[in-house]
Amino acid sequence: MPTALASPAGPVLAKPSGLSLGVLLFRLRALIALFVLVAIFSVLSPAFFTEQNLIILVGQTAINAIMAVGMTFVILTGGIDLSVGSTVGLAAMISGLLIDRGLPIPPLGVALYFNVPAIVVLCLCLGVLVGAVNGILITRFNVAPFIATLGTLYIARGTAQLSNNGATFPNLVGRPDLHNTGFPVLGAGSILGIPIVIWIMFVFAAVAAFVAGKTPFGRQVYAVGGNERASELSGIDVNRIKMSVYMICGLCASMTGLITASQLVAAHPAVGESYELNAIAAVVLGGTSLSGGRGAMWGTIVGALVIGVLTNGLVLLGVQEFWKKVITGLVIILAVVLDQLQERLQQRLALKRS
Amino acid sequence: MSLQDKRQTTRQAVSNGERVVLVAEKITKRFPGTVALDGVDFTVYGGSVNVLIGENGAGKSTLMKILAGVERATSGRLLLDGSAVEFKSTREAAQAGIGIIFQELNLYPNLSISENIFVARELTRGGVVQHRLQEQVTSELLARLEQPLNPATLVRDLRMGQQQIVEIARALSQNVRILIMDEPTSALTAAETEALFRIIADLRAHGVAIIYISHKLEELLTIGDYVTVLRDGKLAAASPARAINIAWIIDKMVGRNVNAPRHRTQTNASDQPVLEVKNLSLPRAGGGFTLENVSLTLRRGEILAIFGLMGAGRTELFECLMGQHPEASGEIAINERKLRNETIRGRIDLGMMLVPEDRQRLGLIQKLSVAHNITLANLRRFVTSFWLSEARELAEIHAMIRSLSIKTQDPQQPITSLSGGNQQKVVVAKSLLTEPQVLMLDEPTRGIDVGAKAEIFEIMNQLAEKGLAVLFVSSELPEMFVIPDRVIVLSKGRVTGEFLHDQLTEEALVLAAGARQQTEHPITAQPSK
Question: What is the pLDDT of residue A353?
Answer without folding.
Answer: 57
